[in-house]
Amino acid sequence: MLPTLAAMLALAVGTFLLRLSGPFLRTKTTFPERVEKLLEASAVVLLAALTATAALTEGDHFVGPARPIGVLAGGVLAWRKAPFLVVVLAAAGTTALLRLAGVP
Q1: Is the Cα dihedral 43, 86, 92, 64 positive or negative?
Q2: Of 8, 10, 48, 99, which has the most beta carbons under 10 Å away?
Q3: What is the pLDDT along the chain (104 residues), one digit of tens a residue?
Q4: Separation of alpha carbons 85 and 74, rounded Å
Q5: pTM exceeds 0.90
Q6: 61: which strand partners?
């Protein structure tokens, strides 16, 4: 039990220090403007790729049209600046209603 607790404590401290290093190094490190724009764009591309993967696949297979349509409904509401809770409930509700109607 003691080695497990020690490992958990070490991982917790390491995670905290890693998270703390971001704001600390941000004030100490400067990037050229072009690199900063690239980093911002890469964050958006990564988020879009993760969203597409989660919305379209489960394991190795396509999930069917219900989930992507639900994500699209949530995306439209988020684009229209709806509250986060409304976006999540609309996406889940759209997917649930489509599946209830027999859409895979």
Answers
A1: negative
A2: 99
A3: 889 999 999 999 999 999 999 888 888 888 899 999 999 999 999 999 999 999 999 999 999 999 999 999 999 999 999 999 999 999 999 999 999 999 99
A4: 10
A5: no
A6: 58
Nearest to 89 by CA among 102, 99, 77: 77
Residue pair 62/56 in contact (Cβ under 8 Å)? The answer is yes
Residues 6+ positions from 7 with CB-CB distance below 8 Å: none
Amino acid symbol at 82:
A
State how far the Cα of 88 lies from the Cα of 74, in Å rounded to an integer. 6
Among 96, 37, 27, CA closest to 66: 96
Place of tokens 């409904």: 73
